[in-house]
Design a protein that fits this description.
By secondary structure, the chain is mainly beta. It folds into 2 domains: about 15-105; about 115-200. Helices cover about 5% and strands about 45% of the residues. The strands form 4 sheets. The chain has a 5-stranded antiparallel β-sheet, with no helix packed on it. A 5-stranded antiparallel β-sheet has the order 12-13-14-15-16, with no helix packed on it. The longest helix has 5 residues, at about 25.
């Protein structure tokens, strides 16, 4: 009997076959643009948990097929399942939502090329809306300093290139959001009470 595999028995070139890393091992620690949104990053954590910013209930992931994963969200009233199916080259997935409907194409997020944003920002200074008279500083401990902000204001990384500012009033808090360019040379965003934060390049 010939030991030469027939062409049709071999996996297509460039696609994972039997020699590919098992899906469960491949996914652990990877991050994905949920339904194509760079503002919502889904992470397959190594302990079998799933992290997505607006999922408020504990959610697990488990491999359920060759290219398939089941998400299980644990609600107070019981569990709900969603299913994600990966393309053969594992570059994206789509699937079925917890309550029906479609999970749109969700491509893999690039492996971080830079120092994590939370480590990169402390101590940096930025020309607020391009003004050399108003310097915004990301301080250690999650604090912000800008000369004419008179109330305590914190910063927190909320996405791969996104930071949320929280200003603390006696009556409550207000949030503003900024998004950095891919090369982290500047940011822009949305003000505390709406409106636009115009381009703010790095000062130091």
């Amino acid at each position: 009997m010939s030991t030469i595999a027939r062409a049709e028995d071999r996996p297509p070139s460039g696609f994972p076959g039997n020699e590919a890393e098992p899906l469960g091992e491949f996914l652990a620690g990877t991050r994905w643009y949920w339904e194509g949104s760079k503002s919502h990053i889904l992470e397959f954590e190594k302990d079998g948990k799933v992290d997505l910013d607006y999922w408020k209930y504990p959610t697990d992931w488990k491999v359920s097929g060759h290219n398939e994963v089941i998400f299980t969200m644990h609600l107070p009233t019981g569990d709900l399942n969603a299913t994600a199916t990966f393309t053969e080259d594992r570059s994206s997935f789509s699937g079925t939502q917890f309550r029906g409907g479609i999970i749109a194409r969700s491509p893999r997020a690039p492996v971080e090329k830079f120092t994590p944003l939370a480590e990169f920002l402390p101590g940096t200074k930025w020309f607020w809306e391009g003004s050399k008279q108003h310097i915004l500083e990301f301080q250690g401990g999650g604090r912000l300093h800008l000369d004419y902000w008179k109330l305590p204001t914190d910063w927190k990384v909320t996405g791969p290139n996104q930071v949320t500012f929280t200003m603390h009033f006696k009556t409550g808090t207000l949030n503003a959001t900024i998004n950095f360019d891919d090369d982290r040379s500047s940011f822009s965003g949305t003000q505390f009470r709406g409106g636009t934060i115009s381009k703010s390049p790095r000062a130091s």
